[in-house]
Hints:
Elements: H1 2-8, E1 14-22, E2 25-34, H2 50-62, E3 66-75, H3 83-87, E4 94-101, E5 104-113, E6 120-123
Parallel strand pairs: 3-4
Antiparallel strand pairs: 1-2, 1-3, 4-5, 5-6
The chain binds zinc ion.
Amino acid sequence: xxxxARKSYPNECCGALLGASNDGEKRVSAAVPMxxxxxxxxRSRYELRPEDLLGADRQARRExxxxxxxxxxxxxxxxxxxxxxxxxxxxxxxxxxxxxxDGKFDHANSWLPxxxxxxxxxxxxIHPV
Length: 129
Ligand SMILES: [Zn+2]
């Protein structure tokens, strides 16, 4: 995740998180880098191809895992969950945001949005990237 985020700097990167979830605890086993296909400014926007997400979901199942989250980076910005992030969110995924400053990893947060897309709770990251 961090390597992908640093390589994509100063643009945003994005990808999928595969793993398992039980009793409210999610364990990430693999991060799958994806192409940012946003046609807007990629320094502040990301968009995933629905096919890529579907592909990651299939890969997860094949390997006995689930697609449990999405990650993306915030170049020269804090790892907060933005209005846009909220608008494009879905409540069944965790959203990991990585803050990259000057091309270096700064910090990361994980967010769990509600179904109404009105707010996202911060989740505890036990082994931050
Ligand atoms: Zn964002």
